User: Which sequence fits this backbone?
């Protein structure tokens, strides 16, 4: 099967190493990956700000770029959720529907489609895992702590397969970091305070790295860490899972 790799615009511009790690990881897991060069933003920032009606040209371009692949895989829970819920086409709705049904966040794809049980990666550090809101509450990548239900975490399951990793236990494992896309611009003070609280939880438990499935959340926390002069770094889960994986 052919996997179309969708890279969010902010990853493309600021964190290209995450895109490269995602590509390498998928290929090492036996997938044929294509990267449509005409891809652009999925339109999530506009839609989240109340301008969904302006995203239609982006929808049409996305359908044109990814309409022939078997799966679309994206290293971002928020962009994936946006596509699952809002991708429509005025020229080929059947293709848009097929894409919505076959677009996956990276860890979701590895867990649910490829059903990988072992990843021979190594990352000998203390790592705090951030459960991003879109991934957890929209894509159901992990269980919400307020529910009286069995706990699970697809990203956590994959991280547990990494050799020598020390995953720290947080006080509030699924608290929002406060980024929220355009929320961090419109409600800067609230967003920054939420981010500082989220970062503090990781630092209290001695995390060397903070990881997650959304580089947007990690970018928000990275800015806070840098302003605090902290030695703790952020790393996308794709970069961890790609460490030491033999091709």
Assistant:
């Amino acid at each position: 099967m052919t996997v179309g790799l969708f890279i969010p615009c902010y990853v493309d511009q600021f964190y290209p190493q995450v895109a490269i790690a995602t590509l390498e990881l998928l290929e090492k897991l036996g997938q044929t990956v294509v990267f449509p060069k005409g891809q652009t933003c999925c339109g999530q920032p506009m839609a989240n700000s109340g301008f969904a009606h302006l995203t239609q040209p982006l929808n049409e371009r996305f359908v044109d770029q990814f309409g022939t692949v078997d799966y679309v895989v994206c290293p971002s829970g928020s962009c994936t959720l946006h596509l699952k819920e809002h991708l429509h086409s005025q020229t080929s709705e059947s293709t848009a529907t097929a894409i919505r049904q076959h677009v996956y966040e990276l860890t979701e794809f590895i867990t649910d489609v490829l059903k990988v049980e072992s990843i021979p990666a190594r990352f000998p550090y203390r790592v705090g895992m951030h459960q991003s809101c879109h991934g957890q509450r929209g894509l159901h990548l992990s269980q919400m702590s307020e529910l009286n239900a069995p706990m699970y975490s697809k990203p956590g399951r994959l991280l547990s397969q990494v050799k020598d990793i020390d995953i720290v236990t947080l006080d509030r494992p699924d608290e929002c970091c406060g980024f929220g896309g355009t929320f961090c611009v419109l409600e800067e003070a609230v967003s920054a305070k939420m981010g500082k609280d989220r970062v503090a939880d990781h630092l209290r438990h001695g995390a060397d790295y903070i990881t997650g499935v959304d580089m947007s959340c990690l970018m928000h926390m990275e800015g806070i860490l840098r302003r605090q002069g902290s030695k703790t770094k952020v790393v996308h889960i794709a970069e961890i899972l790609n460490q030491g994986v033999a091709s």
The mean pLDDT is 94. The first strand starts at residue 2 and ends at 5. The beta strands are 2-5, 32-34, 71-74, 103-105, 126-129, 166-167, 209-212, 233-236.
